[in-house]
Specification:
This protein is α+β, with helices and mostly antiparallel strands. It is built from 13 helices and 22 strands. It has a seven-stranded mixed barrel with strand order 1-2-3-4-5-7-6. The chain is globular, with a radius of gyration of 26 Å.
Length: 544
Amino acid sequence: MNLRRSIPRLVTAAFVGALGWMLTSPLLAGPAPVVPLPEPTVPLFPRGAAQAVADTSDAFFLSAHIPRIKIEITQKELDELNKDPRKYAKATIREDDKVIYEAVGVHLKGAAGSYRGINDRPALTLNFDKFLKKQTFHGMDKVHLNNSVQDGTYMHEIISRGMFQDAGVPTGRASHALVSLNGRDLGLYVVVEGFDRNFLRRHYDNPNGNLYDGGFCQDLDVQKKALSDKTPAGQEDLKAVWAAINLPDLVVRHERLQKVVDVDRFLTFTAMELITCHWDGYNGNRNNYRLYVESRTGKLHFMASGVDQVFGDPNYNLFGGVAGTLGNVLMGYPQNKERYRTMVGQAYTNAFKMDVLDARVNFLAAKLRPVGDFNGHAAGLKQRMRQRAAVVATQLGIPPPTALPFAGDGIAKLDAQWESKVEQGNAVLNKVTTEGLNFLYIKATGPSTASWRKTVHLPPGNYEFEGMLKVANVAAGGEPFVAAGLRLSGGVRAQKLDGTSDWKKLAFPFTVPALQDVTLVAELRANQGEVWFDLSTLLIRRKP
């Protein structure tokens, strides 16, 4: 008698050298304190800041659609751009030949690496309310069109900005567009959210502070370009920070810096720049950063920008010193050094969730499929992020996880420590025991996505995740691989079980390129129905 058939159906700077800001410092010994944040409520590219509020721009950055943006500039305005590429000219913008934006301010952007002339493939800033007040693009006053000449994946900006946001660092979001200029096809661009009032309103209770562009390879002692309307010409707020940095009395200096700089936020910002190997940021090159002096506290905040060259060196040192003067001075104090290490641990926990990052990269590769095959870029980026995650864990002194043990026949059983997760709907998940057999059960009474998950650590190799499952009255939607099935988090399965079916074995083959964690998923994506997974049959088989 097959007992499985009898189951009942109802059943988440100055002092660095002197004080030795290095990984071997006693202050940095031991595991990092980590404080996980709740899972993002929006699975792709969340806003990240706790106080961020939703607005109409969310749909644009979460969409799988790549809009076509046609820029039309008269010859007179082109002549003005040629005279002064950084001065706004007027343009007409057409989005998907459906929406027309008149009198949009356009100027060229970029520095030594990314700048291209107007007759080449220029990076552009589009200011929709520069000449026509209250005109917005999906709720935003300003967006940038980055030519991505330094990032052939067209994914770095989007993925790394999402990570900064996950760590609580305010950072503009990014997406894609196909761009043409006066009928000339310029190809694929990365669309980046501008640092405007709408951006500040999303991340700060009071958006009336002073916003600055950090400048090209410049520290805080250089006059900045003001990006907000009422910024005082003297920039006394930034001068106060530089004056505090240069106070001769070390105790007074530190007390003053804590009054004019949000130190914890700066340390988190620093942690994320170094975790993502953002060598061309403030801490690596005194470049690609924005400054905001919050009006309520008067404290300076740093925000990341230009994060297109990331994850290039997996061995990038988290504790080897920085280029920016503020970081050097702050890290000269033992209490900040210790606090920084805590912030690295928190940022690593909150931002380096490989199943989330895999899903984002896979989403982008699928989104870009109509433009070209980006699967190779996606695989390479995921591998570099995994390598970096392993190095960060090592530099933090986090013990590597124990690899999943395999028996002599190359099989590892998976009959314990499964966790339930409901992504949408009101699915019911239970662990069921019937006549001595154990099962993972999911029931959907309306449109639902739910799963049982287990994370294991695997060495490089070829594997197959397999198991027996049974379904009853499973009604799926129109997607090809919904219903019930087995897969890895971030992976797309090529099999399913729907309708009503007796026990059937399904298998999901996969390859692990380097020692890493993988999350196994036994799921149901359906409008209704039930599924049972036989725990005694869930296993990973190591393939030759």
